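Appendix B: complex inputs.
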Amino acid sequence: MSTVSDPGISAANLPEVPLTVEGASVLHQIVRIRWAQWRSETPERRSAVIDEATGLLSGVESVDGGWTAMYSLLGHKGDLLFVHFRRSFEDLGNAEFQLARTALWDYMEPAYSYLSVVELGLYESTGKVYRGLAEEGIEPHSAEWNAKIEETLQRQRTAMAPRLYPDIPEGKFICFYPMNRRRGEHKNWYQLPMPERARQMQEHGMVGRRYAGSVKQIISGSIGFDDWEWGVDLFADDPLVFKKLIYEMRFDEVSAVYAEFGTFFVGVRRRATDLAELLQVG
Amino acid sequence: MSTVSDPGISAANLPEVPLTVEGASVLHQIVRIRWAQWRSETPERRSAVIDEATGLLSGVESVDGGWTAMYSLLGHKGDLLFVHFRRSFEDLGNAEFQLARTALWDYMEPAYSYLSVVELGLYESTGKVYRGLAEEGIEPHSAEWNAKIEETLQRQRTAMAPRLYPDIPEGKFICFYPMNRRRGEHKNWYQLPMPERARQMQEHGMVGRRYAGSVKQIISGSIGFDDWEWGVDLFADDPLVFKKLIYEMRFDEVSAVYAEFGTFFVGVRRRATDLAELLQVG
Amino acid sequence: MSTVSDPGISAANLPEVPLTVEGASVLHQIVRIRWAQWRSETPERRSAVIDEATGLLSGVESVDGGWTAMYSLLGHKGDLLFVHFRRSFEDLGNAEFQLARTALWDYMEPAYSYLSVVELGLYESTGKVYRGLAEEGIEPHSAEWNAKIEETLQRQRTAMAPRLYPDIPEGKFICFYPMNRRRGEHKNWYQLPMPERARQMQEHGMVGRRYAGSVKQIISGSIGFDDWEWGVDLFADDPLVFKKLIYEMRFDEVSAVYAEFGTFFVGVRRRATDLAELLQVG
Amino acid sequence: MSTVSDPGISAANLPEVPLTVEGASVLHQIVRIRWAQWRSETPERRSAVIDEATGLLSGVESVDGGWTAMYSLLGHKGDLLFVHFRRSFEDLGNAEFQLARTALWDYMEPAYSYLSVVELGLYESTGKVYRGLAEEGIEPHSAEWNAKIEETLQRQRTAMAPRLYPDIPEGKFICFYPMNRRRGEHKNWYQLPMPERARQMQEHGMVGRRYAGSVKQIISGSIGFDDWEWGVDLFADDPLVFKKLIYEMRFDEVSAVYAEFGTFFVGVRRRATDLAELLQVG
Amino acid sequence: MSTVSDPGISAANLPEVPLTVEGASVLHQIVRIRWAQWRSETPERRSAVIDEATGLLSGVESVDGGWTAMYSLLGHKGDLLFVHFRRSFEDLGNAEFQLARTALWDYMEPAYSYLSVVELGLYESTGKVYRGLAEEGIEPHSAEWNAKIEETLQRQRTAMAPRLYPDIPEGKFICFYPMNRRRGEHKNWYQLPMPERARQMQEHGMVGRRYAGSVKQIISGSIGFDDWEWGVDLFADDPLVFKKLIYEMRFDEVSAVYAEFGTFFVGVRRRATDLAELLQVG
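Resulting structure:
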């Protein structure tokens, strides 16, 4: 791929994939409540079911290496959204199975889910790192190159640990949606040169920064895990901010031309102890 | 993004996002009636169910900060459409949960929904405001700029309050559909310069104005809230007007080239007290 | 939109929307039979259900201002197709609710529907009328222009009344499908100039005319009513004619380039009194 | 469309639709078995159900003018595929209703179907015939032209009767899929001139001929009948041949550029008497 | 197709289809657990069901000519994934029916499946072989050519037998997804000349080789068998590797421009004896 005859690696041969660091494993679970079936139970049965589920959910609002947050969704796409952050996919699987084993699950119908890992894309430093290694004459993907890259990533992982393993974000409202970068026949994100992608991502980031005070954003990567390339979670106290932020970004080149969006889910944060109220009958 | 060396901001650097003001939070709920299950109940049970639901719906035909209107839909997409206008997303969530908790809901199957906020796009004044601030040498997104913009928006919100928080529109028929502006590989609304978008929107608006006497239109924005960018509600006494208006608009440049449409729902207005008749058996 | 400085309106400023006249309101309802549930009933119950439904359907094979025809469909898309022609959308709504209230409906599952109004597109005369009014110096959309146009439409409605409110067509077989005119990024029907659209529609019509003896066609418009722009009903005694006609038309420019098709439904005409045979068990 | 001033019809004005001859009416029915419901029945009931269905299916493995063949499908798309060849759509309708009326159908869930007629496209002779008639000065679509064309078709129908009304093909495996010819904005099959389409079809046919010994192919036309333009049935003793043949064809111009494929179904041939084994419990 | 006037076959006339060798027949089955129904059974019934299924699954973890492996999936797309490798499609059909006949299947709902055969594409040697035969003056598709090709393939099948009939791969995690090569109107894989396709595949393969130590990949071909052209299975102990590998590949020309992806499934390997734990209640 990149055979180099003289000292220094040609910039044209640098890898195109940006450096990323990954953190928490993330599962979004969206379910619908089977109201008719739920209402047909006796008050005693409903109480028991709520108690068991409340107990489980209270216990996982904070666990070693993560948390589970519950949201009540607006509209028909689902009634409840469970967002699980964990240390690993296995822990996610356990979180999912724990819920599936509750009696509550008899009254829930899975509607959607999304599997991803928290991801920080290092577009800003990637170019610098790649060019630096090239100037040192280190061949891409050589053992030395790999070691240097891993060293960089490890540094970033440490520095960014709080963003890679975030706490449950404040914010009364959540907005979740998956997205892709377009690979059209004419407009193809993956064929833009790295510096151009970095430029567009930086422009994009500047819009986000203007909203830093009113919205918290968590990006998770899902290439190889789910049907879109990234998941986006936004958290805010005023849901109008979701619209303003995303509308403004839509005029960025990277969104206007290269963003493809999946389904949008909007919900209100609930505590485990709100379950009884959410499932109250009559 | 916009570094300015001399007094005056270059027009080329003005923001591309048009100013908008927002009003009522809106939820469209479409449900199908489970006729077989409904018919299998005793007349007494059916009466009780209808009474409870009629009571609830009568109570929300007008509430503080909004209203709920009911429509019976034509065709298989759904039997009933509930349109909720409220002050906030939380109030919408409550409206939704109130319905879900009625016994009526055991005989209803959610088919679709749409979450949005009433939106007035200020394309006409946006350019003027942006250019005015530029001429005053006020940098976009600076604190001063933000304050001036907010001042403008606040003025508009006050002036347009009746349109931002409208009453239930007169009109026997409703036509609801969601839509996007195209972001194709070659035709991309979000890459047109602001003045061109403003021109097309104005042309579009002129068609609408010719129908002002026979149709009422409410636009709501749903970027960040639902799977399309806008929801459109039309209200008229003669449903043929829906076809005429939308067909004529289809030849506008902004619709011909840039409009993408979701599903269309057409219904007839019903009062809460019509529920008994709508659910009458045999 | 069209500012005219000298007598005579520039052709370039004529409206692009063709004149149309509308007739009967149309609802296609497609349902599947729940065989297992149906078979589980007693013969007495089945008889009673059939009698009630046959009575209703017999009564609406011809009603004031319309009719309901029943077809048994081939394939899994549905078992029965009810085609309702009525004077208004309200009458359609009543027709739909009448069926929904029969006991038969407990054994039917809605699979699809289509809402439209019979439409005759007057491409041939539109250009003539528009140019005539322009030559008289009458400004498009002025009160005078509107009155003249309405006069023309009214004349056409009277002349074409039998086609706008047609009887149930003869023909053992029905073929129904919805369709759009393409609005692609490069090929966009709604951006072709009126004379070019008129030319293509005329070429298209010539093919249809060759089949006039063996197939009857009813076009209904559904812009603003349903998810496609038009519905097409073909009626013939030999279903092969559907294939020949549509295949031949596919090479017309307007179909080859600008036609997008939805789902095709093919059925056999049945009388209300055939219901017992159609639902016969064992 | 084609106004001719001197003797002889310009080649440019010849019809673009290729001649075809049609044979058997074809319905593919794909169903899923409701295992839980089936298993919940008593052995006696199951025996009775199987006996009734086996009797019916045995009786239609060969009927006047056609046959019904059963295949067990691989994967979740369906468990059983019934392929019905009949003389007419009415006979197909009867075949479908006969099955629907069996007790077996209570344990079957319709998953897909496809309606078509056996079709032989006469691309090779179409050009010759059209040019011949043009040289004789016979105007396309004139009465004389129609008569001559019908004469040609009748000759072909007789000569090709065994291919138009084929027996159940040998071959342990079936592969069925529907397909379209592309009508893209840039690549549009229906806008290629007849000679070019004929050339591509001939190239395509040459690949098929190389597989003549190991695979049998039946093409059926479904324009106007179902949601794709053609259905393709392949029959072979070695299913690998399906992959080899279709992969090799994919590099033909007509497939590479103009083929759009629907769902693929692969199954194993079963006799009516295999039903007991297929539905065996435990 | 290839008429040759002098000794030697023009390179331009060489076949475009690459040589492939095929191995095991493969079926992926994805099912959802019907928890409510499962939980409603008595402990005794559940034990019996688990015992029967565990027995069956234990018996097929290794069978003559293949194996069945079980994975628990993350997210709502399915709960369990069964991957069957067998000698033939008939054996696959048997494996599928064996499962369908267990009592366990009453509590399982089929969600997806994928039918394919292990395939090794021989892009590297195809060109060499084709050119070699051309230089010998052997006409493509002649009897001699076919014999020589079959000889080559047979040699490859023997040499690659362990990859064509692989054991259950080590690796705690599986990632499965189907994919196509794009046949767009402008970017069409099947119209690239063989040497260009070979070049892109080689570049693609170099990325894969860098991950050889941490991920095992099995490609299976499904043209003619299922709705996508290939299935991809990745196996790894660290699921992050799936994301890294696929993200890096996305920048390869063959993936960036020509890859279209279906649904992604991610699961954790389970033994037959884990079934009791997976289905544990409460």
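Chains C and E do not touch (no CB pair under 8 Å).
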